[in-house]
Target: 2-oxoglutarate dehydrogenase complex component E1
Amino acid sequence: MHRITKLLTKGPVSEILPHIVRTTRGYASSVKDGSGRGPLRAFATQAAAEPFLSGSSSTYVEEMYLAWQRDPNSVHKSWDAFFRQTAKGAPPGQAYTRPPTLAASSGVPMPLPLHAVTQGAPVDEKIIEDHLSVQSIIRSYQTRGHNISSLDPLGILSADLDSTTPPELVIDNYGLGDADMERVFRLPATTYIGGNEPALPLKEIIRRMEETYCRHIGVEFMFINNLDQTDWIRRKFETPGIMKLNTEDKRLILARLIRSTRFEEFLARKWSSEKRFGLEGCEVLIPCMKTIIDSSSAIGVDSFIIGMPHRGRLNVLANVCRKPLEKIICQFDSKLEAADEGSGDVKYHLGMSHERLNRVTNKNIRLAVVANPSHLEAVDPVAQGKTKAEQFYRGDNDGKKAMSILLHGDAAFSGQGIVYETMHLSDLPAFTTHGTIHVVVNNQIGFTTDPRMSRSSPYCTDVARVVNAPIFHVNADDPEAVTYVSRVAAEWRSTFGKDVIIDLVSYRRMGHNEMDEPMFTQPLMYKKIAKEPSVLTKYAESLINTNTVTQQEFEEEISKYDKICEESYMLAKKETAVSNAEWLDSPWTDFFSSRGDQMKIPSTSVNEDVLLAIGDKVSTVPENFQVHGGLKRVLRSRADMVKNRMADWALGECFAFGSLLKEGIHVRLSGQDVERGTFSHRHHVLHHQEIDKKTYVPLNHLFQDQAHYTVCNSSLSEYGVLGFELGYSMTNPNALVIWEAQFGDFSNTAQCIIDQFISSGQAKWVRQSGIVLLLPHGYEGMGPEHSSCRIERFLQMSNDDPEYFPVEGPNFEIQQLHEINWFVCNFTTPANFFHAMRRQISLPFRKPLIVATPKSLLRLPEARSGFDDMIEGSHFMRVLPETGEASENANTVKKLLFCSGKVYYELCKEREKKDMVSDIAIARIEQLSPFPFDLVKAEMQKYPNARVTWVQEEHKNMGPYLYVEPRIRTILKKIEDDREMEYAGRFPSAASATGNKQMHLMELAGFMEAAFSC
Model:
């Protein structure tokens, strides 16, 4: 303690307090029970000291007191004076005397520990121990009360999978008994249960704490390491009477429950054999969501982006978003064909966008439900990306106008890794949406799996603890409790801009779907469910019994909504077709009609002055900005290329992005280490070498009135980040949104987003997106993990027919682009990359672009483009034909090699080495999908005597070969040519590449020999 005494004489309390904390941590751990310290004393003192300290460090107050008991001279005189005054019975606030040395240096009095309430009574250690124990009890309820809350509507399960009572909540463990229940204890500043009362009997303290934390709401928040936030939550739940609702609130809840319940019953009557993944058992979700929207709308939010799984989706569309019921009902008629494009999707996967008046706030709001597949949580990052994009375009820097609401199932929330990936984007500067409200429809079952077998954590929501999101567990059969926590959740998000969780502990009345039999696997649960009245029945009965509504009013409200459903059913019968476009979650108003001729490809070239201006800016360091010496050489090299009217890959990329920014097109590039570039080639963010966090982004300083360029390193996530960028791209068609994988094969872990959203989104949901995927690809002898982006997978998912040669004519290229689901390219020149990026924006529609980007070509001198290939008169080249000696003597060419990507330069090198420049023609297919039938045909006709060979560096069962081969056969058949297509490449393999450098070179030499054998 002499160390503490020494510290106390050194300066202001506010300055020395951290040192005291560090000093007392070691001391506190050494104190034994035999010294007079009770077994729960440390925990109790922590509660007492919490107003000015957090965590276990607060035990220093108790240690100070114990030291003073042993030797008053061992503590500073200010503490000695305080403890002496307390022992004499000084009332609260009068025991502390500030010594002159402290007063002179600090205007803030030292906060006081709790002490006896009864004035004039002698204070002994037992009294202090009891008061500290009461503080410990209060804190225990705040910390662990949720563990004994009555959350399960069925009364058969514990939401935390543990039916025992935590020892902290057993009063006997504190040495307090029945005789102490009437004793009055002063309340600490860490609780609000007293209202205006400074002290309460112990019995009343326990009652109020149980009412707050152990009834139908379980508040899990004490893990949050921010005192302002924990105090805010305590105030929202502990203040007496704060959770009571007025009569109008209750009547509104009842009306919403009627809509939620009767909608499901209506569908069940009309389509008893249809799957609809109804909401029965958690009908309170509708009042919950509507309350969130009402409260957020009142605060100023006017746009809500909703991501959700299939359970309850139709009910949300009908009763939250107010999609016209007849449009939903039409989806049940399988005989109605689509009046527009797309294969469509099942009704409970569809999205929508709708604008309507919020009747509670009398404000217009927009609601969008994002379309998503059965991959339950895959929509999470997509909805977040859409929200972030809307906030960006609206200048909503704090998320006060647009917000996201994500719905989850309990098993999926704890079981799907994408939930964790999405949560970890929540506070990243380039990804935050300033708080998301997560609503978990906790059916306490996953398909047929008991929660005790589907998670290792106590709650399904425990993943949210990693981002300090408060979690409100609530019994879904208590609509008023649900409504209150929904309001608090909306206020939390608005106040702190952070995520919050509402865990609706409920049940699933039917099986996984309406055709499923749950009794096979959960017989006891479903026997109980069969006897359980609906939440509507129970709530209506309680309101009728308290004269809040009459039986007649209740029945009239039901009749009113039933009539609406029946009228909509009759309207739906008159429909002759369904429109997939009506289910767009982000309709691009007037985009297509404003793009002019849909059958014309606009120019993608630019003026040379634009290239020169961009080149100058991206090769110049601003004044007084110190960059790394190695980077100076890179910038000088860029400047030299600009002088010589040349561009390597990185400079070509700058030209593409910079020219779009000049035209007002927002460009966003994200992924792992994209700011510098995985291969240290990009350097779009310059870092000052002496000043932390001082950076410079040249592309944001090109032209006046240019658009903003966002380049941001992402978290080490592919699934979540690609989903986020996809959502971002869906919001505004006039933006270039790019995700770059660190290596091409990293896209493997984002395959769900690629398969379910990107490749098939337009077919299923009429959902266009111009997102670009940059996937570094190339066999450099570096092993099987980072060689291949698995380009064969993207080509396999292309929807063009290998046996159909499209009708030739002036619109051949644009027609193909219209009909394909995406573009798959493997470029060999910076100029073609430049034009492809600009084409993404210039086209009168949007399709995803998959680019197998190079690694070694980033610095290969031969892989450069002159300005002439990017200025007026230039354009994107789907095929780069042979232009050398072989082209001049086409009839004598012995072999025509088709290839794509990096292998072209290796073929050229080998051709020079073998002195076969006039015998071998090499053509590059830059755009693999849609396949350039017309241009490949022209090349084959140009060399009528040449053997046709496809060359690739990938293995035969990988790469483009399996895609290209049948299409080249179709061309040969079209021109009635009996030549066969030969193959030169690696043999089939299970691994994408060898890990042995020597084997890599042997394979390369082998297929080169095959390519050039005539």
